[in-house]
User: What shape does this take?
Amino acid sequence: MSLVYLETFYEVARLQSFSAAADALDVSKGLVSRHVRQLEKDMNAQLFHRTTRVVTLTEAGSRLFTKAEQIFLLAREAAREVRDITEEASGVLRFTAPLSLGERLMGDLLPEYRSLCPGVKVELDFSSASLSIEHGHQDIALRAADRMPDNVVARHIGRMRNILLASPEYLLQHGDIARPEDLNRHECLLSSHRAAWNEWKLTRGDEVVQVNAKGQLSSNQYTATRQLALAGQGVASLPVYLVEEDIEKGRLKHVLPEYILPLHDLSVVVARHRMLPRKIITFRELIERWFRDHPFYLV
Assistant: This one.
């Protein structure tokens, strides 16, 4: 069996697309098709069900995919361990986090990290996309997720403290909000990233009041939601770290300040290594210390 053909098969199965696999491997779609056909010939088995819209695995393909995933995971782990032995605190560190949190964190953290690990090149990728840690595409991540893959190590940081806010102009036009029930008559700024985040569970001690937020505007980024709130477009649920200055300068007003919204479980995530490189250990320790130094950002 050709490992080149196996890698091509693996990418098609992982991405569920011949075209996407060709892009990932930087080859032509025709070459991808030829590799898969030859592998099917070598294996004497059909590996994919093909239609004009979707590519799915046959039973034989599903079994081969499981084994291929194990093979390539071992290959990446072997390469990483050899590289880490020689790199020490050098080479590249790739970090991913949600946009607003990454931007807030890096201004404080990066100068110290660069002084501790001056030989490390840092690549930052801030987005709401779930970039792969377990397959080696990123080295370390901050993730707001309920479940993690089995082959990563996740250290729980805490639950992010969200609060409700609106601009003074919006409240002047639409009225103050004195009780959670009042939110039902207000325009709420929604999350398009995850529908469950629009179920606002307002917490005050042991009291929990659930409000199903409703509104005409939604965004997949907190930074955009903040801009909508500043523009007087509605009531927003936003993390404290993003709006401290807005509250201090009166641009946004904290609504129902006796309540909090513990919305996201936040973890710092790395791939499961036998030997974790020093450059990753140092970066993780700085992230954890930053949150200890900012306890009000967490519940």
About this structure: The longest strand covers residues 152-166. The chain has three domains: 3-85, 88-150+269-297, 159-263.
